[in-house]
Amino acid sequence: MNTWRNASLAVTAVALLTLTTACGQEQGTASPNGQAVGNAAPAQQPAESGYGSSGGGYGSGADVAAPKAAGQLAVQDSKKLGKVLTDSEGFTLYRFDEDTAKPPKSNCDGDCATAWPVVPAGDVTAAAGTDASLLGEVVRTDGSKQLTVDGWPMYRYAKDTAPGQTNGQGVGGTWFASAPDGKKAAVNADGPAAVGDDAEPVDAAGLSVRKDPELGDIVVDKRGMTVYRFTKDSAWPMKTACTGECLEKWPVVAPVSENSVEGVTKKGFVTFDRPDGIKQQTIDCWPLYTFDGDEKPGDVNGQGVGGTWFAVSPDSELVKTTQ
Is the CB of residue 263 less than 8 Å from the CB of residue 209? Predict the structure, then answer.
């Protein structure tokens, strides 16, 4: 009996090891420099671009040396994110999950602060109709003072080169546009499904199933946005063919807690530590994405794009429409 039990345990261990290896988690897919997300260049930004140029944006050396004042804050209505806090010029303000609000503390310095320029505390006025008492400041390690909203330090994103852009949303699963009250911007943020200020982003994302009139059952994220797979990716071993500018159109699905998944397979439900440092959710070891061209829940504008992007069924299969 003991011999049979030991053999059974050995088979189980081998099966688990095989799954882990097949998913590529032991094949050097982690960030080659072992750098934490948020303290290095975001994957969306090509290395040669330098996070902006002297000709514009917030990424030049001059901008880092003398951060631009926020001035009169404003609130922008986004189809994807709801109400988003912006500076006087309409540039999106962001918050970082590795910071803390109670007490306020910024954990973004060095290269991180180059990619995510801090918003200084001086010369700032609350947006019309918002609670001015939520505005505050935190003293950074270099002695400068950074704007906080309900305790959360505020940043811009170097790759937002025009007012209204939200290219920093979801980067690394740790950067999010700020709502006027300092929480993460989200559609229907004031409703029952609002994400609390201290809620974990992985639980906020979620995966569930929506019945599309043409595609049938497909996977969607917490916002109801369609989830896609890329046929040029690989699950065994787990690899991605979507990097650099591709991620601007096809943002990764950030890691999701298994407890927030409904109706979707949990086979191969692991976090993909991409070579670019971003953490990405997978099902059946396949990396998952959303599409920048989907403006509202229910959109499937990414379906069949390039003959390589397809919605995902609850069991992780590609959902292909007939031509």
Answer: yes
